[in-house]
Amino acid sequence: MDAPRSSGPRRALIIGLPLAAIAAAAFLVLGRDERPAPRARPASAEPGEEAVPQERDEPPVVPPAPAPASAAAPESEAAADNDPEARVLDRMRAALTSDPAEVLRLDDAASRELGDSPRAAERGQLRVRALVRMDRIGEARSFAEDLIERYPDDPAAKGAAAYMGIHPRPRGPSR
Prior knowledge:
mainly alpha
């Protein structure tokens, strides 16, 4: 009769592997080189030598010029006033986390008023997410399938399909 095996090596492996992973992660985090990059000499430091631009790995960081606050706000407000669908989409995004049923109401109203507008697929994507939040998964999946069928090249429709795990069928002749 064989004697039972000792669990010593197994126990060492079970305990040792996580500890080794933690030690490796700590080494990677603490082993980073925190030294600052060397500064370039100013061209006037040595007048006898020609100033040769030094190549750097990174392009210089240039902060964007701040837009005047008075000019930026009216443009965005004017765009929202001119595009009623943009306002609906903003309201739908805002309601998605707090009140998914409101997203459905807003989408129904926008569908009646705007019909098949250029941003209908984006509204549909928000509807799919709202349906999922309301645990109406089957309905969300069916709606996402319809979206990808109606708008096969629209990024919002593709996003809704990916969100639901739908892989669209390739277009063209089947083999």
